[in-house]
Amino acid sequence: MEILFDLHTHTIMSGHAYNTIEENIVEAYNIGLQAYGFSDHGPAIEGGPAEVYFRHFRIFPRHYKNMYVLCGVEAVITDYDGHIDLNGKALERVDYAIASLHSWCLQPGTCAENMRAYRGAMQNPYVKIIGHPDDQAYETDYDELAYMAQKYGVALELNESSLDPESVRSGSVREKMRLIMKYCRRYQTPVILGSDAHHKSYIARFEQVRELLASENFPQELVLNNSLAKLRRVLNHPDIIK
Ligand SMILES: [Zn+2]
Ligand SMILES: [Zn+2]
Questions:
Q1: Does residue 128 contact residue 154 with C-beta atoms inside 8 Å?
Q2: Which long-range contacts (CB under 8 A, 24 or more apart) does 211-218 make?
Q3: Looking at residue 167, what is its pLDDT?
């Protein structure tokens, strides 16, 4: 399966990633991606960019040579109602929003609380991707999650960095991803591969997620990354992609 884009990547603007946007863009182009998105953490993350960083995205060129460049955010879900740390004009300006739970920002709740947080985030019309729902810190009903995602037109992410043994989310991640795939297949919910690269060398590296997809014989139609037409589904401004 050909992977045409990676939307979950970080730059020095996140405060704990190590390449500039420019460096990431050149790397993405050199490895042959058709679209590249940078998604720095939202303002709730310590050392992350201020809201104005996102509000000013209108000036950013959306092309590099023949590759699309997309300006996104990995927003932080800040409470169990599913509020995120970017709103108003800034949220309207981003090309796409990934919403994620991070245990250093929101204490894991009960399964019901975590599900309410996910539901609230999915009901936000600008959120079209849930980032790393594999996090074992947050007890999750994956059947319900995949059902809700389908209902709200949201893709669930299969996050390559979660499978890194050094990841904060490691542990039963593989198990959780198998559940995500099982229920996404049941409800025909789209999944999106995200590298969660915090260094350019990880951009669009999906060895482990690919292996999992193959071992589960997961239908390629439900994977968004193999088509620019499918990429449009997670964008706030789909017209960027012609
Ligand atoms: Zn990060
Ligand atoms: Zn994250």
A1: yes
A2: 212/158, 212/163, 212/174, 212/177, 212/178, 212/181, 213/1, 213/158, 213/181, 216/178, 216/181, 216/182, 218/181, 218/185, 218/191
A3: 85
Question: Which residue's structure tokens are 């590759």?
Answer: 67
Query: What is the distance in A from the centroid of ligand 1 to the CA of 4?
Result: 22
Q: What are the structural domain ranges in the chain?
A: 5-240
Cα(36) to ligand 2 centroid in Å equals: 17
Tokens 């239908």 belong to residue: 219
DSSP letters, 14-41, are GSS----HHHHHHHHHHTT-SEEEEEEE
* pLDDT value of residue 8: 98
The confidence score (pLDDT) of residue 168 equals 82
Residues facing 9 on adjacent strands: 197
Question: Ligand 2: distance of its center to the CA of 15 in Å?
Answer: 13
Distance (angstroms) between ligand 1 centre and the Cα of 162 equals: 12
10-residue mean pLDDT series, the chain (242 residues): 97 98 98 98 96 97 98 98 97 98 96 98 98 96 98 98 87 94 98 98 98 98 98 96 92
Selecting from 3.30.420.40, 3.40.50.720, 3.20.20.140, 3.40.50.300, what CATH number does the domain 5-240 have?
A: 3.20.20.140
What is the structure's pLDDT at 72?
Answer: 98
Provide Rg for the chain, Cα atoms. Answer: 16
Please choose, from the candidates 192, 197, 190, 164, the residue with its C-alpha nearest in 3D space to the C-alpha of residue 38: 197
Q: Give me 182's structure tokens.
A: 């099982």
